[in-house]
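Run log, item B.
One chain of 178 residues. Sequence copied directly from the ordering sheet:
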Amino acid sequence: MKKKVASKVSKPVRNAGTPRLRRVESILVPVDFSDCSIKALSYAVPMAKLLGAKIALLHVVEPLATPDFVGAFPLSMDNDRAAAEARKSLATTSKKLRIPPALIERASVRFGTAYHEIAEAARDLKSDLVILSTHGHTGIKHAFLGSTAERVVRHAPCPVLVVRESEKDFVATRKPST
């Protein structure tokens, strides 16, 4: 005589101390138009689709080190031109990557220090996630250039996914067609 074994599928038990995951609705992706930042954007697109989120693109124009006498000349014309060029480049990049326009919530340009403006944009836009790249500088380059990604991780009001330039990928990325 064979014994019947009852298989019981148990439901996952939620303990009172187990945190609930918040819904990701807005993903901020800083883009400096380097291959690294394009790779981060390539990560953001399938994640946004999977999570039902929108993408906010951001380009930060950092101030140039200029001599003191330059302060006498108005730079607003250069800032306007830089902002217009950056917006145009963001649109071109989105088209090259074939990102559905409905996925892009906004594309904006800010002026200032990259890590500060990225963290502030995440705060202002109430972003749920920041996806950015790191250029992977080490040694002397890291000492002089610092790491924008490290600073964003420390100052952002939300989780940050840092995509490395040449490590194992978990998202199949494609290069933009030229």
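Observations after the first pass:
- The CA atoms of residues 55 and 161 lie 14 Å apart.
- The chain has a mean pLDDT of 80.
Flagged for discussion on Thursday.
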